[in-house]
Design goal:
The chain is mainly α. The chain has 6 helices and no strands. The protein has helices at 3-28, 31-48, 59-78, 98-116, 120-130, 136-139. The longest helix is centred in the first third of the chain and has 26 residues, at 3-28.
Length: 140
């Protein structure tokens, strides 16, 4: 890989690392698993960086398709549980006091019900939009 490609990959990595991490964290519910997946994703991206043809597509879509496959591989190899919408609140702290805890619990229940009503494809679109930071066009 030439120096220009290395610098280009470095900029791409810096720009997209957090989004891929957030997406993987949301899909797996685990920071540790997200770390492993993101490491795998960017290793795959680096390995094929020179072969990517920008005329055939957008690097962001390519990146998230690799992330999607890496997460799928993770679930297949580990036979892990399915993602739960309650994991969206894993790092969220309620307002102090009973009222804040009650509000957070109520909000969590409403979100869980709404997410449970979605099929897997719709949940994936929500994750790509709100955790991956992709545009609707890129998701489509």
């Amino acid at each position: 890989m030439n120096q220009n490609a290395v610098a280009e990959f470095g900029r791409f990595y810096e720009e997209w690392f957090d989004r891929v991490y957030n997406y993987a964290r949301q899909r797996t519910g685990s920071g540790t698993r997200a770390d492993e997946i993101v490491s795998d994703v960017f290793a795959r991206v680096l390995d094929s960086w020179d072969r990517f043809d920008e005329k055939k597509g957008d690097r962001r879509v390519w990146l998230f398709s690799i992330a999607f496959r890496s997460i799928a591989d993770h679930y297949r190899s580990e036979a892990r549980r399915k993602w739960s919408p309650l994991e969206l609140f894993a790092d969220r702290k309620p307002e102090p006091g009973p009222a804040g805890e009650l509000e957070a619990s109520d909000e969590q229940a409403r979100l869980a019900a709404a997410m449970a009503a979605l099929d897997e494809r719709a949940r994936e679109a929500v994750a790509l939009k709100f955790y991956g930071g992709l545009t609707n066009r890129a998701i489509a």
